[in-house]
Amino acid sequence: MTGDGTRVVRAGLPEPEPFQPALPGPEFAAHFHLPGDAVGPYTYGRDGNPTWARLERAIGELESPDESAHTVAFASGMAAISAVLFSQLRAGDAVVLPDDGYQLLPAVRTRLESYGIEVRTAPTARDAQLGVLEGARLLWIETPSNPGLDVCDIRRLADAAHSQGALVAVDNTLATPLGQRPLDLGADFSVASGTKALTGHGDVLLGYATTRDAALADSVRLWRKTVGAIPGPMESWLAHRSLATLALRVRQQAAGALALAEALRDRPEITVLRHPGLPSDPSHKLAVRQMRPGRFGCVVSFTLPDKAHAERFLAALTLVDEATSFGGVRSTAERRARWGGDAVPDGFIRFSVGVEEPEDLVADVLRALDTAAQDA
């Protein structure tokens, strides 16, 4: 068995050929030659592409290194989320969603309900979704949750859901397959936005769904074909290229996030501080059992007194981009309430730690906090 750092470098690569690149370049094609009645792997650009196929094999090797798995890549994380939900649910079904998950889930809920699907919600913390699971067709888990960073017990929830005949999908975006393997913990689907840490450079929109069940993969793949939510070959190639540094980035980001969280513990202006790797965090004990050691994600969240204070803090940062999204090599931060859709205070900050030296980043954040407090 190889380690993660070795696996990400080799994942999805074709067999070596003399004088050919280790990772072939993107293949741009709307159609492929189809002589006679011959059947081949590629026919039309909406059905498949060699560049996607390599990326999908690579992600499958990371999400499920010890068992065969099927990955379907999409144009974005929301395309992957929608594909799993809408391919598996029918009118009259019930689905359980987190009420503290990604901010577009309420819009997804509205659409599901318009199709006659019952939507139930509960918080991520304390495995509260168990209380509304009876009779559901699908359970959607987001752990750690975004942006609140609560953690739930995937194994416990998956066992309960399966005992009632429900499917389980886990949004693994924040953890990445190097931080958490939902399929090993009993989930039917591991779904993620590859836009975030998986690709890590803030220049690609991508999503994927991985499952060990071939029939489930076929249903999701058919949904992708039907709605045309396909990834571009250039984006797929960029994503595959970026995987080679995933272990390095995840390691550096996790170390930086923990260093930042520890530095913020005693700041008087911060009322709520969350990071699963922090020993004092409410989710820490469960995160230690469920996530890979030392890989608790790149996100730290904390709450400043009000909107004005938060905006002064963001303006004073010099090593951090004020931007949405997370998981990139450059640190970003945002006042999350500016977007609406999240039940967070006006001063709530979602901070994504990049790969800068932790001591430099911590110094910049502490200086910005001092500046924000002085200008109050």
Automatic annotation (TrEMBL):
InterPro entries: Cys/Met-Metab_PyrdxlP-dep_enz, PyrdxlP-dep_Trfase, PyrdxlP-dep_Trfase_major, PyrdxlP-dep_Trfase_small. GO terms for molecular function: cystathionine gamma-lyase activity; pyridoxal phosphate binding. The keyword Lyase applies. Keywords: Lyase, Pyridoxal phosphate. The modification N6-(pyridoxal phosphate)lysine is found at residue 196. Its cofactor is pyridoxal 5'-phosphate. Pfam families: Cys_Met_Meta_PP. GO terms for biological process: cysteine biosynthetic process via cystathionine; transsulfuration. One of its GO terms (cellular component) is cytoplasm. Its EC number is 4.4.1.1. It is an enzyme of class 4 (lyase). Gene3D superfamilies: Aspartate Aminotransferase, domain 1, Type I PLP-dependent aspartate aminotransferase-like (Major domain). PANTHER family: CYSTATHIONINE GAMMA-LYASE-RELATED, TRANS-SULFURATION ENZYME FAMILY MEMBER. Belongs to the trans-sulfuration enzymes family. NCBIfam families: PRK07582.1. This is Cystathionine gamma-lyase. It comes from Streptomyces piniterrae.
